[in-house]
Amino acid sequence: MCRCHTGKFYLLLNLFLRCPPGSGCTHTFCSKPKLEKCLVFIQAVIHEIQRVANTVPLSVFHCTTKDTELMGYSIPKGTMIIENLTSVLSEEGQWKFRHEFNPENFLDDKGEFVKPEAFMPFSAGPRVCLGEGLARMELFLMMVTLLRKFKFIWPEDAGEPDFTPVYGVTLTPKPYRMKNQLRTPQ
Ligand code: HEM
Q: Where do the annotations place heme binding (predicted)?
């Protein structure tokens, strides 16, 4: 993410975290439309994290139960099917910034939230992740709760972050150190 985006991300997120909906804040920045914008932005951030994190890159393996024809290809019964979600989540023509972390991938020109069809970290179809609803709710609640309580600070002596994932059935980040500072109550 470039510096300009990091700054915007920080400002919008910080505003939302300091003055959440219902906090009664009357500051002009905390008007309802502004807060709605922040909520939209935080949703865009969570979706972009999921897109880039690409948690289950090859989904769950499937198998054809009968001879199948797909886009001109014949797939015999009993063929193992491996979905490439990594490819979909950075598919050319689907994302404004497919190779960078940028919440704008989920915002239109008016700043409204949009979810491109290619956003499928939970896969798609009849066998789509059964826990999608629960996972999405948890992601939102945990992220907002943690960010409201703590500041997450990259330690000065930690060097550049290494974003190379640890490969397995799921992709996980390499272990890293993070300084957590309790936010002062507003
Ligand atoms: C961010 C979190 C999660 C991600 C990215 C994720 C992703 C996935 C993916 C890609 C699949 C394979 C779908 C397919 O076969 O095409 C799957 C299946 C599944 N997931 Fe999740 N999942 C998440 C959280 C959860 C949670 C919290 C639960 C349960 C509480 C859950 C329960 C399941 C189940 C039961 C299936 C198998 C569905 C089936 O085969 O019919 N998942 N998940």
A: 129
Contact 155, 177 (CB under 8 A): yes
Tokens of 152: 């997450």
Ligand 1 centroid – CA 59 distance (Å): 8
CATH code for residues 3-149: 1.10.630.10
For the chain, the domains span 3-149
Ligand 1 atom nearest the C-alpha of 83 is: 16
Q: Is 129 annotated as a binding residue?
A: yes
Pocket around ligand 1 at a 6 A CB cut-off = 55-56, 59-60, 121-123, 127-131, 134-135
pLDDT per position in the chain (186 positions), as tens? 444 455 555 555 665 555 555 555 555 445 556 667 778 888 999 999 999 999 999 999 999 999 999 999 999 999 999 999 999 999 999 999 999 999 999 999 998 999 999 999 999 999 999 999 999 999 999 998 898 889 999 999 999 999 999 999 999 999 999 999 998 765
Q: Which residues of 24-49 are buried (b: 16+ CB within 10 A; e: fewer)?
A: ebeeeebeeebbebbbbbbbbbbbbe
From ligand 1's centre to the CA of 123, what distance in Å? 8
